[in-house]
Each structure stands twice: as structure tokens, then as C-alpha cells.
Amino acid sequence: MIDKFREDVMTALDAVPSGASLAVGGFGSSGRPDTLLDALCDLDRRDLHLIVNNVGGDFTGVGRLLVERRIRRLTASFPVLPEFYDEYFAGRVEFELVPQGTLAERLRAGGAGIPAFYTPASAGTMLSDGTFTLRYAGDGGPAEYLPQREVRDFGGREHVLEYGIVADFGLVRAYQGDRKGNLRFHLSARNFNPVAGMSGRRVFAEVQQLLEVDELQPDDIHLPGVFVDDVLLASEASPKQATPAERS
Amino acid sequence: MTGTVPDAGVRGLSREGIAGRLAADLRDGYLVNLGVGIPLLVPRFIPPDAEVILHAENGVLGLGPAPPPGQEDPDLTDAGKQPITLISGAAIVDSAMSFAIVRGGHLDVTVLGALQVSETGDLANWYVPGRNPAVGGAMDLVAGAREVWAVMEHTDRAGRPKLVRRCTFPLTGRGVVTRVYTDLAVFHVADGQLRLKECAPGVPPAAIRERTAARYAEDL
Question: pTM score > 0.90 for this model?
Fold first, then answer.
């Protein structure tokens, strides 16, 4: 019998070592797996590479990891939190800035066995020409740049080569999940969760409702359990309300 | 802050006026993405005989107006993370599908604010060097949408033209803009060339010429 439900979040997340890469669902605080992110803090994990669309607008979720200085590199399209930029310009966090659609497709591709693909997004811009600063030196100057993308012409338009992302772990949040790991999301809280779940080699899902197998109809499953390894109950202490400061 | 330029005698459209002028060009059945700023003023001016579907990057097809106070759902927001409602017939997709719709040419129009637009349709709107860089979906939207409509004041706060020969701010996309709506005029970009199509009411073509650094053809 497959039963992926785990009672204890800390015991399950203990499998994530410091230094790991993590693909994280959510768009701001909407659909963000704060129970899992809090567990990483409580387990004192550090030097993490987070792949997530936003840091968010406050010190919860990814923002908590940031202010506790647990992030080595952020791959994101729209960080938001001002304190993130303080860390970036001080050279304490690397920042791989990626167009939002490219980020979503890189996660999807990584989970789909597509090592790389061409997209027109960012062609002819500083996100593809090797002039965007990935890492600052302590003295404020650039220490390393985002690599220049390979460019190829398709149909008379420039496209850039982008690589699929296979993360060590995926962290997602779902509205409902069953013991086989099948997940169903709620409205726009779906966002990056399915692709974060595809990208991770081992995927943790926090669910707001745990269902028995067959309670979710096959046609209603957004991410099948084949992508999910561990199902945990979300702590409803997770803040969900967006703040006006969050923009994307 | 309205769209007036410092010189006396030329009064252009207000921000609402620009949004209203742009909205008049939206057609029944269009799928449209609206950026922040003036573009967010567009929905209230969409003609009643045009059903326009609004797309949000976080996977919403069919955004409705903001909910009444107390009825916000934290699981239902737009790309600015503000609470929304859904229109009848709306659909929700994940982020990869949302941008497949954008890149795949299924989005009719993306309406974005602009720092600068060049005479060949280059757009700069994502980053002011020295400030905090963030791109969101802007580069995917301008690369993928069938039409890219830039909406902005004709000049910046210091009175400098925002329609320029070459953008000095970092580019969002090269040769991507198809139309520009300002407080003073409407321009189209055709065959890589900027064309003045329309002057705002009471604005003479000479006033536009004075406030535009980009070269353009008059095609009124």
C-alpha cells in the first residue's frame, strides 16, 4: 500500500541538507508552502539555492529564510522584499534574475526531461547578454555576471537558449491531497506549484486537506502523485493574505 | 499628476483619458494582459459591446473587478497580488500554461507602461539602473503577445521626451512595440518605423514634434 502521508513535518524535512536546491511553489504568499519553509528554518538549514518566483513582501515564508540568511542563491523573476536587495548588493546572496515565463518553463522542462529550450523572452536584453550582475563583491562592484545566453534565429527572430531546472527538492502547497500524493490546487494558488512539483527530485507537498484515496476524482487531479514523495498537513498558522506592498 | 507638459498652451489627456483612448481600440473577443499603472485604468473604459478577457500572469483567464470588502479570497489574486473576482467563463491555469498562452501567440494584446520607447519599437520598462532589479513577466509578454501597446506620458517629469531614437534604459525587448498611447498622441510601429496616427484633441502636430526625440512619419 502506498501511503505518502507523514505525520511529522520536521522528521520528513530532515532529509533536506544544507546546500540543497529547492524549487518552491507560490506567487507571493498565494499558494506558498510556508509550513515547509518554516521547517527548514527550524531545522537550521543554510546555504540554500531557492528557485521561486518571489521572495514575498514580508518576513514570512521565503522572506524568513532570507532574513535569517539561509539563502546562498535566489533564482526568481520578482523578489519584492527590499531586504533581499540589501543582501544582494552586499554580496551575501547570488541573484539569478529570470523572466517569469522562462522560470516556469525551465521548471516544467526540468521535470519533463527537456534539458534546454529556446525562447524569445529576454533576447537582446541584459538578462541574456552577460551584463547582469549575478553576484556582487564585498566592495560593491560586480564579482560575477549571469552567463551570456546562446542565441539562435528561428523564423527571423532571435531566441535564447535556456536550461531546464532539476532541483534537489520541490516544495509545494495544495488545497487537497490524498495518501498517494495526488494534488488539487485552489484557484490562483495553483500558479508555480505544479511546475515546482515537476522539477524536484524529491517533492514535499503540504496540503490544507488530507483526503483518502479515491476522494479526488481522476479528472480533478492537477498534479499526479507520481511527482510527489511526501504529503504533510499544512499548519494553518501560515499567513495567506497578500500585503499591498507586494507587486509583480 | 495629469499629462500636461510644462509649456503653456498644450494640454493633453489625463491618465484616465489615455486609458479611455486605448480602451476604444480593444475589440470583442480579445485576450488582453494589463500591466501596472495607467494600464490598470483601462477596464472601466472598455466599450460595452466588446467582451474582453483579461489575463493575469499568475494563471487567471477572465479577471473580474475587485471583490467587495470582506469577500477577498487569498487564493484568488491578480499578478499584482491584489484580490480579484472571476468573470463568468473564467479559467485558471498554472504558471507554465499561463506563459504558454503568452508565448504561443494566443494573447492578443499586452498593455504596458513604459520608461522609453525607441523609434524602432524597442521598449524599456523593467529596470532603472541603481534601483532594485525585477522583471516579472514583462520580457515574456513583449516577446510573445501579438500586439504590444505601450502607454505612457509623452515626456518625463523633467519634460524630456520618452519617445527616443535609442533607449538609454535597459531594454525589455527589441522592436516589440506595435502601438504607443500618450497624453498627446497615438503612434503605430509598422515595418520598424514609428508613425504618428492621431493627435489628442486640441494638440497640434507641431507640439508633438517638439516633444518627441524619435524620428517618425506623420500618417494622420
Answer: yes
